[in-house]
Structure formats: structure tokens, C-alpha cells
Design a protein that fits this description.
The structure is a single chain. By secondary structure, this protein is mainly α. It is built from 17 helices and eleven strands. The strands form five sheets. Strands 3-6-5 form a three-stranded mixed sheet, with no helix packed on it. β1 and β2 form a beta hairpin. It is elongated.
Length: 477
């Protein structure tokens, strides 16, 4: 070791044996590749070995050593040749081999493992290309054959994000919810394990398409035709067996899927009756399930109509969420009346959210009570608009029910021997009581006169507040 004014120099060996520490979600480095550590630090571990701590590893493309040629300088460096991306056919073959091996072992595979075995990066393929390549890997696909792509799992342990697209690429036109898609993915994964684990499907039968009949002699064409008929019948029998087993377990979705796959397919005569029986059973059971779902929806909306005004907003919100989810299953035709009730209560809930709380009602009532007592001393009435202008402009935007609530709180402690202060709030003209005055009396458990006697009752209340001759004093004002 020696030193200068700016540096200290140490003798070290370039090749070291040590250990590298990477983030917990990092993939293991491959022994045949070279990497450049990112954000690396060098230290010693407890066992006395070199420890490299890095934020990640950046793969380094190794360059081939330059070869000397006659007349060429030894130090001439040629640019590295670009690595050729694998073709679609090689990717399909790699995916198929990996999926079949996974099915035989009874496991599952991640997207990164598929890419690693195909020697490509995980972010190279778009969802559209994943769909195209995996659909090709499933070929030739026939009804009843398990879907190998169900063995691909996402980081969260569920189906890969492109699984629904693969189903559509195989002819499944139905739209699935998240729960339904998870059911299909789980079921197809189990079927793939069972089929390949028992040797029912082989790599040769899956990967090799049938030869073209036109290229063969007459006897061979006949053999191919007979073989196709046998395979067709076997596929139909497998689907029928699957549907009958699903019928025994009351699995409507599986029966529906089989009937969808058999739709438009020429079914052998001996199984045609079974298909018709399955169709009738599915129709009857679907109608029963739909009617039962509608009854649940009707029960929820009936509770809303009966108890809605007494429910807490959170309770109402939960009921509405449940009802809307069931209404989507029932459909607009059968659940038209219930959907209207849901929309009405949803609007009511929105209005409730904008209404003041009880604490806010009481704050408004305190301010209105002070203002009305001042009006008694001044011997004059007021309108709701004047109160809003004097106290708080938000009073003018209150719902009529909230205005009643404010006036009831104003007179909550007014003795029954005295008329309510709310009598001082008049209509716009000032010569009649406020239209809500009758409702205020009712909510205060006061005597509520008939509409014909209301005006006289109101005048007597003002006379009690202002004394005799109040009308003359107000006229002079």
C-alpha cells in the first residue's frame, strides 16, 4: 500500500468468492450470465466472506472475443451483433412444453418462469401477444379439452391478467365477473392436472396437427375421416360426462358452459336425448335460481320502503349496495319495479348526505331563538328570508323538513302556557303565518287547529307576545 496527496492505493484481487444480498422480491441470478450490480456496497459478513449489497442486478450482454484475421490489426473491435428475438413458433413450443410439464407435475407456473424458459424478458410481450401465443399453444383445442393457460398464475396467486382474453380467443364469448373468472380458472387448472397427470392428453396429440387428407391416398383419407369422427364423438362424450357430473352437484355454470360449447355442433344421435334433458334441466333450474334472486331483491326493497326513513344513512347505504348487486343479476326486465325503488332511495340518500346534522340544527335554532326574542321586544314579525339575511344565509337553502326541525328546536323549551316563538315567522306578505307553522305545532305536540281556524289561532299567539293593540303599533312602524 502507498499513498499520494489525493489517493490511497491497496493491492486487491479482482476475482473474489463472496455473497450478494438483493431485495427480497428479486429473481435469482443465472450462473451463465454476467451482471452489473446497481447501487452496490462491499462489506464483510459474520463468516468473514465478502458481502455485496445491491439494489438490483443489470444483465450485461457478453461480447464475443474478436478473432484475428490476416491483414487485420489485433486490436480492431467489431460491434456486437444484435440478439435475434425468438420467433412466435419457438415461443409457442416453449410455452406448451412448460405448461404440459407443469400440468403433469400438478403445479402452477408464473409469467416470469414462462419467459425465463423461453429466454425472453417478462416485459417484452403485450397482453395482446400473450393472448395470441397462448391461444396458439392450446391448439388444436376441442370442446372438453382442459385449458392449459389456467396453470399460469399472477403475482397475487390468482389468474394471469390475460386469462380472460385467452378464453375469448378460444371461443368463450361470455363476460365473466372477477369471481366467475376465478371459478373457471380454478376448475380448468384442476382438469388440466387430472388430464395430463393421467396421461389422457399427450404432447404428440396436442402439438401435431392432423395431416391434410388431400395429400393421402383414398384409404388414408378414409382412415383420417374415421379418426376425426371418433375424436369428435369422444369429445362430445367427455363434455356430456362433465355436464352430467355438474348436474349432480347442481353446478349450473359448468352445465351452461357445456351447452354453449355444444351449441351448433352435430351431436351423435345416441347423446342427443341427453343434451335435450340437460337443456331442459338447465332452463328450469336457471328460472328457479333467477326467481329466488328476485325474491331476495324484493325483500330488500320492501324493507327500504317500510323502514327507510328510520334507518341510519350507513345502514341505508349498505342495503342499497346489496340491492344494486342483486338487481344486476336479476336484470332490468324482471326487476324493473325494484330498480325504480333503488334509484329513488339512492337519490334520497344523496339528499340526506347534504342535509345538516342535529348539532348544526341546534346551532341554527339557538341563533333563531335570540333573533325572535329580539323581535318580541321590537313588536314586529319576520320572514324566513329576513332571518337568513340577519343570521346565516345558509338558512335559506335548508330543506323544508330541516326548517321545521330548526323551529321545533327554537320552541323545545318554551312553556306550553305560552305560544311558540315560531309564530313570529310569517309568510312573505307578513299577514299570515308561515306555511310550516302548522307542522311545527304538530311536532311540538301543541294544539293544531284546522286550516280554517289557523289564522285566528296565529293572531291570538301574536297578541300574547305583543299585547293588545299590537296591530296598531305595527301599522305605525
Amino acid at each position: 500500500m502507498h499513498s499520494t496527496e489525493t489517493h490511497r492505493y491497496f493491492d486487491v484481487s479482482v476475482r473474489i468468492t463472496g455473497r450478494i444480498a438483493l431485495p427480497v422480491h428479486s429473481e435469482a441470478p443465472e450462473s451463465h450470465r454476467s451482471y452489473l450490480p446497481v447501487g452496490a456496497t462491499l462489506s464483510w459478513d459474520k463468516e468473514g466472506r465478502w458481502l455485496i449489497s445491491a439494489e438490483g442486478l443489470q444483465p450485461v450482454q457478453a461480447e464475443a472475443a474478436p478473432q484475428k484475421t490476416e491483414g487485420s490489426p489485433a486490436n480492431v473491435r467489431h460491434p456486437p451483433q444484435p440478439v435475434q428475438a425468438p420467433s412466435d413458433s419457438s415461443l409457442v413450443c416453449s410455452f406448451r412444453r412448460t405448461l404440459e410439464s407443469t400440468a403433469r407435475s400438478g403445479g402452477a407456473v408464473t409469467v416470469s418462469t414462462l419467459c425465463k424458459r423461453a429466454r425472453i424478458k417478462g416485459d417484452v410481450l403485450t397482453p395482446e401477444r400473450w393472448q395470441t401465443l397462448l391461444v396458439q399453444a392450446e391448439q388444436p383445442w376441442t370442446p372438453g379439452k382442459p385449458i392449459l393457460s389456467a396453470l399460469v398464475k399472477d403475482r397475487d396467486g390468482g389468474p394471469a391478467p390475460f386469462f380472460a382474453e385467452v378464453l375469448r380467443g378460444l371461443g368463450w364469448t361470455r363476460s365473466f365477473s372477477r369471481t366467475e373468472l376465478l371459478d373457471v380458472w380454478s376448475r380448468e387448472g384442476r382438469r388440466a392436472h387430472a388430464a395430463f397427470g393421467n396421461g389422457r392428453w399427450s404432447t404428440a396429440s396436442v402439438a401435431s396437427p392432423d395431416p391434410k387428407p388431400d395429400c393421402l391416398p383414398q384409404t388414408s383419407r378414409q382412415t383420417c375421416s374415421d379418426s376425426a369422427a371418433v375424436r369428435h364423438r369422444a369429445a362430445c362424450d367427455a363434455l356430456i360426462d362433465w355436464a352430467c357430473e355438474a348436474q349432480r352437484t347442481n353446478d349450473l355454470r359448468s352445465v351452461e358452459q357445456v351447452l354453449f360449447l355444444l351449441d351448433g355442433v352435430v351431436v351423435p344421435p345416441e347423446t342427443d336425448r341427453t343434451v335435450k334433458t340437460l337443456t331442459e334441466w338447465f332452463s328450469d333450474r336457471s328460472a328457479e335460481v333467477l326467481y329466488g334472486t328476485w325474491e331476495r331483491l324484493s325483500t330488500l326493497t320492501e324493507r327500504l320502503n317500510q323502514e327507510g326513513d328510520d334507518l341510519h344513512p350507513d345502514q341505508m347505504r349498505r342495503l342499497l349496495d346489496d340491492a344494486e348487486e342483486i338487481a344486476r343479476e336479476v336484470g332490468e326486465e324482471l326487476g324493473a319495479a325494484e330498480i325504480q325503488d333503488i334509484a329513488r332511495w339512492r337519490q334520497h340518500l344523496t339528499q340526506l348526505a347534504a342535509r345538516p346534522t342535529l348539532a348544526e340544527i341546534r346551532r341554527h335554532a339557538m341563533a333563531v331563538r335570540v333573533a325572535l326574542r329580539r323581535n318580541v321586544g321590537e313588536v314586529r314579525t319576520t320572514t324566513w328570508g329576513e332571518l337568513a339575511a340577519r343570521i346565516d344565509l345558509s338558512l335559506s337553502s335548508l330543506h323544508p323538513e330541516d326548517r321545521v326541525a330548526v323551529l321545533v328546536e327554537v320552541d323545545r323549551d318554551t312553556p306550553h302556557t305560552s305560544p311558540p316563538l315560531s309564530a313570529l315567522v310569517t309568510d312573505r306578505g307578513g299577514d299570515r303565518p308561515h306555511p310550516l307553522y302548522r307542522q311545527v305545532l304538530f311536532n311540538l305536540d301543541r294544539l293544531t287547529p284546522s286550516p280554517d281556524a289557523m289564522h285566528m289561532h296565529w293572531r291570538m299567539a301574536l297578541r300574547h307576545h305583543f299585547g293588545w293593540g299590537w296591530e296598531t303599533r305595527m301599522a305605525k312602524q
